[in-house]
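Subject: for your reference before the review

Hello V.,

The reviewers asked for a structural picture of the protein, and I figured it would be easier to keep everything in one thread rather than splitting it across files. Below is the amino acid sequence we used in the manuscript, unchanged from the supplementary table.
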Amino acid sequence: MGTSLTGKNISTTYLGLLKTTDNAVIGSTAKRLTDGNGTDSPLYLSTSKLGIGVTPTEALTISSGNIQLSNDNKIQFGTSDVYISGTTSTDNIQLGIQGATKLTLHQTTGLTLAQYGGGTITGTVTQRLGVTSAGQVVEIPIGGGAVDGSGTAGKITKWTDSDTIGDSIMSESGSTISIVDTLKINATTGDSLLQFNITGDTYSMGIDNSDEDKFKLAYGVFGSTDLLAIDVDGNSIFSGKITINKESSSALTISNPSATNDYLLIGHDASLNSLYTSRAENSYGTHTFRQWDGSTTRNILTLDASQNATFEGDVNIGSGGTDSNDKRLLINSGDGAGGEAYINLQRNGANNFLLNATATNTQIRNVANLPLLFYTNNDIRQTISADGNTTFAGNVLLSGYLSVTSNNIGTGATRWIGSDGTTSTWFYNVPTGGNHYFAVNNSNQLSINENNSTFAGDISLPDSKKAIFGTGNDLQI
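And here is what came back from the structure prediction:
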């Protein structure tokens, strides 16, 4: 504490002496200091407080004006462990703790922490700091807690646990987002889908929850223009054409996954330039084309393993009308030994009629023991019986000769025209009283019976010929 002025000499003018205003001693209540002439100073002083320009309420109270420290000086608390230091060389303020700078406020580069990342000070963070447009530092709710972790450039971040981030299976490069392995879209309600949009055209792909969870590809939204729908049983419905296009060959394959090489293939082979079906390496299989009328399934065409085709209805070639193109039914066998091409008409599985071509001839054969009938205008015109007899319903017109060699033309053994195949020809009529008639213009010109020959007109002979009557040349003309 200070000492009294007892026994000391003081200037007679007292002008340079600082004293309390009331000239009394300093106590607990601060008093203003004046000089010996009574001029007030800005200092207020008590035994425990100092005020500058104001009666102090704290140990040091300043009403206005600045506190200025020389360059690199400190405001120090206690020893040098805690301080505030300013430096004009780098224009910053430093806060020191335990004798070392912990925080630096820079004029141009902001805030710098002297130490971080040690992990020795931990706790639960409930707020984070942000800066408003006015430069105000404010608190922001931190949400789920502090976030840490690391990642790879180009990778899209995911949560690896409740407060850690890391790499996901998605990455971004330019305008492309790539996903490794599986993209899974879950929807608790409504549709689960992907949508693609470009220049106003939208395509949707996914599960239509409102239509029995069918997987769909649609133009627009589901239910508007569905292009493909697949139900849970694997049935597929296409709303348009299916085009399979490949330069060398293309095919649509329908397979049985439980049987090796058991499949139906419909395709186009560039070397054959044809449409074909195949069940490769499966000789016992058949192909059946069926028709469904809403209640019954009917077979239309069956192809068996032996290359036989069975139609259940009519087979039409060509549509008629104004079509001028030729239409043909071509049956072409190979030229190997025994190879035949034929049309086989069956009734109840039994062969009735064959039209076939062999290596040496063409045949029309009635295999069953039945007559063969030929119709025109829905009337029988020719009948060939099972034993080979032929009956014509009308005239038989010949543009050439009727040649009979070692065979007869007639009805059995009673009436016939025959030849022995060498020099003799017969007109034969066995019944007694029967006649042979030779007619011209539907009028009989010669009638021959067993006793007489009657001519309806004159008999003309060449000049060098004569008529002989009797066996002994009894009469000659």
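For the response letter, the relevant points are probably these. The chain has a mean pLDDT of 78. The CA atoms of residues 206 and 466 lie 112 Å apart.

Happy to draft the paragraph if you're swamped.

O.
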